[in-house]
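chain below, 379 aa
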Amino acid sequence: MERDRRWTDKGEAIGHGVSWLARWSLRTALAALGFWMVFWLIGTLWVVVMPVLLGLLITTVLWPPARWMMSKGLNSALAATIVLIVGLGVLGGVIAAISSSIASGVPEIAQSAQKAVTQLQDWASGPPFNLRDTDLDRLISQGVEQIKSSIGSIAGGLLTGAGAVTSGVVTGLVALLLAFFFVKDGMRFTPWVRGVIGERAGGHVTTVLERVWVTLGSFIRSQAIVSLIDAIFIGAGLLILGVPLAIPLAALTFLGGFIPIIGAFIAGALAVLVALVSNGLTTAIIMLIIVIVVQQVEGNVLQPILQSRSLRLHAAVVLLVVTAGTSLYGIAGAFFSVPVAAAVAVVMRYLSEVIEARSVMVTSQPDGDEPGKTERSPE
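prediction:
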């Protein structure tokens, strides 16, 4: 057999390398263009995409009890209606409890804040600032004038906020309706996909969709457990220290836990701020220690145990996707970034499994069965 001499000529070797680089550069550019088009399309249709994503996350919570009811012979539509009504009732009760707690705690915080302002004035009037009452009055007057001059922009911001709240309410209602249909007709989705795209491709697609669904459910359940534990311990610390608005702050801690890293930080900072305003510096320092300890236990013990098997995402990846989601789509992007990243990771793992299985099939074939194979003499 004649020795393979394709790479004996340097010019041919360099030309082959340049051609290989050009081909992969073109493929990378086309892939980047495709990703950019996907992100552009999501941003353009965000008013449709967001209710769908939110409806899927709500469905992961409603589906287990609905599936249990269906297994007992209950109609799918009736089961979906029952779990949706019960879920809304629980949510309404939680909101009512939080609202009553806020209404009872705000006057106490206002009184504490007034005392804190008086103490701040006394501190500013002493050394090293030695500000007199006239100086303080002048500073306050300047602040009031600045607020008056900015009243137009403040009003515009309030109108924008009201519009955002209205849009959020509409999005929530659409998401609830979608969740009802997802729970009611979810079992028919994968057979419909197989019938539309064919058995061969449908098998791959349905397998990926089922794995993504399991991952989303595991994420919501594990994150709910972690957030609940955070809320219980931080709420207990607030109650023991006598900080007002303990229940609303605990509820905010629970909700903030669904936004990894950023949500826990904001909820903890708000708890420390309320403790500082209402109870003083010593209580705020103790509350800060409690928040840090709870968040360290959460990040280093609870999340690795509860989420490592379901998501298998490194903490650095979580931080990057949360940052990217926040910069692209705001708070909603921060909320959906980790579930979307987990779904993408599931797809990538499945593709890796398929590629590995095909490579094993090829290498396991006898040498004579490989088409187009030519023998080469050993080097």
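The mean pLDDT is 76. Residues 51 and 171 are 6 Å apart (CA to CA).
thats it, cya
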